[in-house]
TrEMBL record:
Residues 82-156 form the Glutamine amidotransferase type-2 domain. It comes from marine sediment metagenome. This is Glutamine amidotransferase type-2 domain-containing protein. Transmembrane segments: none annotated. Gene3D superfamilies: Glutamine Phosphoribosylpyrophosphate, subunit 1, domain 1 (3.60.20.10). InterPro entries: ASN_synthetase/amidase (IPR051786), GATase_2_dom (IPR017932), Ntn_hydrolases_N (IPR029055).
Length: 156
């Protein structure tokens, strides 16, 4: 029941978002973390509308949301250590197991990890500093962190 309710809410959210975008016709859309109510699927509604995504943590690329593994900063390539966090029973696994595509896993690929836990972002090392910059080589994504444009050359 919980999974069906979640999918129903997400479907309704997407339908409502499409309706608002069609009526309002914005020049640009500003998104914050997707949280539990929405998923990155909301980006499908945007089509050719430019979007800004404000990221408050690492929940898009890390199942824990804060790139920590056993009380240490996780510096691995994206996805390589994820199973260590989500596979520990009673740790993060139980909190996220119902969100996986088959009710027992978490969805992850080279660019995206679905998760739900969001905590403050603290860059403890260069390994976690600006991780979203390194995922995109096509120069279509401009990263602005706390109002500072780190990759300013992409803007020109």
């Amino acid at each position: 029941m919980e999974k069906h309710l979640l999918l129903y809410c997400m479907h309704r959210f997407c339908l409502k978002t499409k309706q608002i975008l069609k009526e309002f016709k914005p020049d640009i859309v500003h998104l914050n973390n997707f949280l539990n109510i929405a998923s990155p699927s909301i980006l499908c509604c945007l089509k050719n509308i430019p979007a800004i995504l404000t990221i408050h943590d690492y929940s898009i690329i890390c199942p824990t949301g804060y790139k920590m593994l056993s009380s240490k900063v996780c510096n691995s390539s994206y996805g390589k250590n994820c199973i260590k966090c989500i596979g520990i029973k009673g740790y993060y696994y139980d909190a996220i197991k119902h969100r996986g595509p088959d009710d027992s896993e978490i969805f992850a690929d080279s660019n995206l990890t679905f998760s739900h836990q969001r905590l403050s972002t603290i860059d403890l090392s260069l390994g976690v500093h600006q991780p979203f910059v390194y995922n995109y080589k096509n120069k279509k994504v401009v990263i602005v962190v706390n109002g500072v444009i780190y990759n300013w050359s992409w803007c020109y």
